[in-house]
Amino acid sequence: MSMTNQREEPAGLSASMLSLDEVRQVVGDSNITRADVDAGQQGENVRRNVSLFRPRDVRAVIRPGSVQEIQAIVRIFHGNNPPAGLHAISTGRNWGLGSAEPATDDVVTVDLGRMNSVRRVDCDAGYAVIEPGVTQLCLAEALDGTNRMLNVTASSGHTSVIGNALERGVGLRRQRTEDLLGLEIVLPDGELARVGWWPEQTKRTAANPYGLGPSLLHLFTQSNLGIVAAAVVSLLPRPESQRVLRLKFPCARRCRRAVF
């Protein structure tokens, strides 16, 4: 067989495939899809491209279920140093902000949809600690019957709260970035760090996302400096009542000419 027509992958991409073998041991067979082995089996929400950008070459999709698994994945890729990068998505349904497509080719997608825990809700203090897979619908249901509500967007209930906020989405009450109080990030070497404000277990402190000195919080909005594993989001007071006013205007029967 002639080898001239075969595509030879760079050595770094072969290293990426070896990294995926290690990752499979971390997340399990059912939570990793390799493009070279499981073609056509990737979830619709991961590869659905409704933003009409050019589809990218995604080498694999990994679905971790915990912060520890994210750290292990990052350390594996960091240790082997392949040119294929990691592209993190939340639920893949923030479609107005680029779908789930990465910005470049030859990447491995880290789908955080399995990380859907509402870790903590404090309605008195007005915040919730959530993971990237928590959707608007999920958090809204968790707040049902309380005196707090989420700053929702006009998008689907199945979009990620964190994913939309990190992409600077627009809520119905205010910019979604204003909802971010603190972030838990896995850095490129696998270290876990927290920036902004985070609730303490031993004492109650006021929610202050800026802290002392330069604020690092927004280094991680619309950036690739780390993978956000959780966030503290502020909750709005729920109004006692709400009314919708509808206005209807009759159509003009004839157009008036402008006089100059």
From TrEMBL:
Q: Magnesium: is it a keyword of this entry?
A: no
Instruction: Please indicate which superkingdom the organism of origin belongs to.
Output: Bacteria
The record ties this protein, via Pfam families, to: FAD_binding_4 (PF01565)
Q: Does the keyword Flavoprotein apply?
A: yes
Alphabetized, the UniProt keywords read: FAD, Flavoprotein
BP GO terms, sorted: lactate catabolic process
Supply the PROSITE patterns for this chain: FAD_PCMH (PS51387)
Which Gene3D superfamilies does the record match to this protein? 3.30.465.10, Uridine Diphospho-n-acetylenolpyruvylglucosamine Reductase, domain 2
Q: Which molecular function terms from Gene Ontology are attached?
A: D-lactate dehydrogenase (cytochrome) activity; D-lactate dehydrogenase (NAD+) activity; FAD binding
The cross-references to PANTHER family, in alphabetical order and at most eight, read: ARYL-ALCOHOL OXIDASE VANILLYL-ALCOHOL OXIDASE (AFU_ORTHOLOGUE AFUA_3G09500)-RELATED (PTHR11748:SF114), D-LACTATE DEHYDROGENASE (PTHR11748)
Q: What is this protein called?
A: FAD linked oxidase domain protein
Q: What species is this protein from?
A: Verminephrobacter eiseniae (strain EF01-2)
